[in-house]
Design brief:
The protein has 80 residues and is an all-alpha fold. It has one domain. It is built from 3 helices and no strands. Helix 1 packs antiparallel against helix 2 and helix 2 packs across helix 3. The chain starts with 8 loop residues before the first helix and ends in a 5-residue tail after the last helix.
Length: 80
């Protein structure tokens, strides 16, 4: 496997974080699971998607453009 085919270290760490986070959120009490837990899981998975979407060799501005695009989409500012 070449270096471009291997996932970046930060992507692997974000994936491991998402795998660690999901069972923790499931143990939250009912009042927190559907508010705080949902937001934690959503943002953890969004981070992973942005990191994967930027690809290898992406600059910092490309990363933040992906984050801002995702937030605008969540607010309904982007048309389909």
């Amino acid at each position: 496997m070449t270096q471009l085919e291997q996932p970046a270290g930060v992507v692997v760490k974000a994936y491991d974080f998402a795998l660690w986070l999901l069972p923790k959120v499931e143990k939250f009490g009912r009042s927190y699971r559907f508010t705080l837990g949902d937001r934690l899981v959503t943002h953890g998975l969004d981070l992973l998607l942005v990191l994967v979407g930027t690809g290898p060799g992406a600059t910092g501005s490309e990363f933040f453009l992906g984050v801002n695009t995702g937030r605008a989409f969540q607010r309904g500012e982007m048309a389909n």
